[in-house]
Amino acid sequence: MSCCDLAAVGQLGKAGIMASDCEPALNQAESRNPTLERYLGALREAKNDSEQFAALLLVTKAVKAGDIDAKTRRRIFDAVGFTFPNRLLTTKEAPDGCPDHVLRALGVALLACFCSDPELAAHPQVLNKIPILSTFLTARGDPDDAARRSMIDDAYQCLTAVAGTPRGPRHLIAGGTVSALCQAYLGHGYGFDQALALLVGLLAAAETQCWKEAEPDLLAVLRGLSEDFQKAEDASKFELCQLLPLFLPPTTVPPECLRDLQAGLARILGSKLSSWQRNPALKLAARLAHACGSDWIPAGSSGSKFLALLVNLACVEVRLALEETGTEVKEDVVTACYALMELGIQECTRCEQSLLKEPQKVQLVSVMKEAIGAVIHYLLQVGPEKQKEPFVFASVRILGAWLAEETSSLRKEVCQLLPFLVRYAKTLYEEAEEANDLSQQVATLAISPTTPGPTWPGDALRLLLPGWCHLTVEDGPREILIKEGAPSLLCKYFLQQWELTSPGHDTSVLPDSVEIGLQTCCHIFLNLVVTAPGLIKRDACFTSLMNTLMTSLPALVQQQGRLLLAANVATLGLLMARLLSTSPALQGTPASRGFFAAAILFLSQSHVARATPGSDQAVLALSPDYEGIWADLQELWFLGMQAFTGCVPLLPWLAPAALRSRWPQELLQLLSSVSPNSVKPEMVAAYQGVLVELARANRLCREAMRLQAGEETASHYRMAALEQCLSEP
């Protein structure tokens, strides 16, 4: 059989490809084609390769390209099977006068024909050819050889068909296809554009697995695309804007890529553009902001101008989209702009090493305020039927980021929106699974078909907590939040989140946002304790909260690295105990005793005596565990000391319990062992407050303090109230 005859047989694959989407009424025509029926019979009855070749050649003459429908292709497969193509793919001997790759090309052509059937594309006999097919993409040879080009096209056809099956991407990744595609694209040989298209599809379907299997190759592609983007002067740079987000790795982006991407974006966004040109650039910038923060923007004047340009463009886009009633909102573009605004908020509130100068910050805060006003305007129009839409979630997210830093401006508008925000947060809290799905949809909507950067919070309430913490300090917003039931919702939320940190759960895998959310809830409750004590006393949800705090603190104070959360829980519990002192749960129950013992542990271990070189007397110093976080801890510690002092006269059993813990004795011993000059006045006041109340509440406490040289220590520190109390019988 001649080489030309083999090429003719190979046209079966092309016929299958060209007709893959066509289902004309050919079944009837096929049944009226006795010649085709006879040749298919001969193909089925062929006893060796030569007879199969001959029968295949006859079949190609009986049908015309485009005349093979799905049913006919399946009948050809049933007649040929996989054995024949398998031998063609592995043979190394070709007929005289033919290149050695001709038989392999024929085998691939037959597979391409068969893969037009989705069922056959998922067949194990096709899947196990993935490594062989992948090697054809980068095989060396004459670039002008038509048979070689045909083989490459057929290989891409097979791999694309496999990728379209439910588990196809996983098989392709395991078979080394991602690396082969990367090499084919970087080599810029025949079919490299098909390699890029298939890579895009695989990254969209299974980003994590692709990067795990072929990170070095994918990074090489990213470097090439980034360099092309930086150099592009034609319309290709806008196409690259759409491709590049898919090729950003889930880990660190190489610095050289960041430089090229920033330079390319600076040139694009600094020009006068139409929306179809500008929007992909904004989405790419948003993807970089979400993955890298501001690290991809260079320091100095050029970087600050670029960042200011980004945020200004984003704010303009948001206002144009949300202020004009009746216009269709391009939600993906606006959500990307939200990400850029969030970057602007972070940089405007950064005190050290900010990219922005002070005048730039002032200007950006002004334009962002106008954009946030547009967001509020949009949210006020959201009805119940739209509350589960991802774009609403994204809009609440950017509003939450703004309120976390700024609540003084737009106060009237924010107060007007608060009832909606409480209802919205409650709706998503009660449907937590759907809320988590919404956060994933927001990431998809905003940036790419993957989930880049840190995981977005899976509930609206966590987004709003920092802003509500500020608002509960103000009378007007606090009254609205209380009226709408926010405190009860926050208690339920806190208890639910607390369950995630309880024994039986692996806290090491919890995102930091869970613990930060718990701390912020504590701050809100602290605000309510101080500004709305009546609410704490009458709302039953706070009784449940108090019970949880009491049972949780003993274990929490023992856990390494969770001191700040323990401080929040201890201080909140102490303040609430003062208000709920008549509750049966606080009348010396095991839970209440365990709580106050843990609170004493937190308060008593903050400071130690530390020797100083060249001095006979030690100084009062922070304990190692407290030292690194004292800036965040000290306000809670002082408030906790004050709250404990207030609890002593309200709970008669507390002073004897404190005495048994030896806290008052050890505190006096600590003060007597350090130089009074090393103890700050506010520390002296805090210590005296606790010691005085314990001494007044219990005779045995007074006696124990006297035995510890309490009067002498009080004199040294000028604690007049303690000295007087201990001098009394």
TrEMBL record:
Gene Ontology CC annotations of this record: cytosol; dendrite; glutamatergic synapse; membrane; postsynapse
InterPro entries documented for this protein: ARM-type_fold, Neurochondrin
UniProt GO BP: bone resorption; neuron projection development; regulation of neuronal synaptic plasticity; regulation of postsynaptic neurotransmitter receptor internalization
Stated family: Belongs to the neurochondrin family.
Protein name as it appears in the record: Neurochondrin
